[in-house]
Design goal:
D-Maltodextrin-Binding Protein, domain 2, 306 residues, 23% strand, 10 helices, 7-stranded mixed sheet, 3-stranded antiparallel sheet, single chain, 41% helix, 3 domains, Arc Repressor Mutant, subunit A, alpha+beta
């Protein structure tokens, strides 16, 4: 029975019968038969499935939550006993938010692949709230809390959407010294991420005392991505908002091509969460999770030192 339970856990982790059969070097029919045997022994369905779709039933989710850690614990113990110093190998299914990958993770992830050539990495770039187990992810980096209450969540950084302008703009239009003065200035607005509509009402938050100022702005230009607006500031015609961790922002500040506007205020914050699907990780997952955290911290430290 326990062998079949652990097989069920593998089916969920690999995202289906076909994938599990390939990874476990067995047949789909054999896996299907053993899952049916398990459902008979348990007296309840644990998977809903057809030719194109599979998901856990509520009872299946309970079984998974109860036994996934035991299965991982046994695997960890076996790894320690049989292959204490072996080279890492296996499959990693991870989800990364695009906001963090380009500047914080992608420059380093190749190093991990070169160091561990026997590790296969499947990367999904996801902006939505994640369902770690149902989607088959073991590790994720996201700006949103996951749906599953069983996931382990670590907040490793918080970034802010701040205001910037070029010295040419300040010379031509002046430097705002209070949030209220922003209503008289030329600013690049942004589009609502859900509706796609131009945002007219903006809230500036004070980073020191959490006070807020509500602004009604009528920008001439609206942009969907805060990652692309920085270059618009160099025209000297607009104030822009951008995430403060972006290397291009830090580089332009360093060379005095940008000036921080109202540095004690910001529009939004962007949390960076490192998420584990379950408390007990394999040695491979632990190593990769540590790598992700170190990569992000190193990228932030390097950008601050430049």
């Amino acid at each position: 029975m326990y062998d079949n339970i652990f097989l069920f856990i593998q089916v969920v982790k690999y995202g289906g019968f076909n994938s599990a059969a390939r990874q476990l070097n067995t047949s789909q029919s054999r896996i299907s038969r053993r899952i049916k045997e398990l459902e008979i022994m348990l007296g309840a369905k644990i998977l809903k499935r057809d030719t194109h779709f599979m998901e856990m039933t509520p009872f299946g989710e309970l079984i998974y939550a109860e036994f996934a850690n035991y299965e991982q614990l046994l695997q960890n113990d076996i790894e320690k006993i049989r292959h204490k110093d072996r080279e890492l190998s296996g499959l990693l299914n991870i989800a990364l938010h695009p906001a963090f990958t380009t500047h914080l993770i992608n420059p380093k992830i190749v190093d991990f692949a070169v160091r561990y050539p026997k590790v296969q990495i499947n990367i999904a770039y996801a902006v939505q709230q994640l369902e770690m187990v149902k989607s088959g992810y073991s590790i994720a980096v996201s700006d949103k809390m996951p749906k599953s209450q069983n996931s382990i969540i670590k907040r490793i950084a918080t970034f802010h959407q701040r205001l910037y302008a070029s010295p040419k703009y300040i010379k031509k239009y002046g430097l705002p010294t209070s949030p209220q003065e922003m209503e008289k200035h030329r600013i690049i607005g942004y589009l609502d991420s859900d509706s796609g509509e131009p945002v007219k009402t903006y809230t500036l938050k004070n980073i020191n005392d959490d006070s807020q100022v509500l602004l009604q702005l009528e920008p001439q230009i609206y942009a969907e991505s805060l990652f692309q607006t920085v270059e618009l500031a160099t025209s000297g015609e607009f104030i822009v908002s951008a995430w403060d961790y972006l290397p291009v922002v830090k580089e332009k500040l360093k060379h005095n091509n940008l000036v921080a506007i109202l540095p004690d205020y910001y529009f939004h914050d962007l949390p960076c969460y490192l998420i584990y699907a379950q408390p007990l990780l394999s040695n491979l997952e632990k190593t990769f999770a540590s790598f992700l955290e170190q990569s992000i911290n190193a990228a932030l430290t390097n950008s601050q030192e430049k």
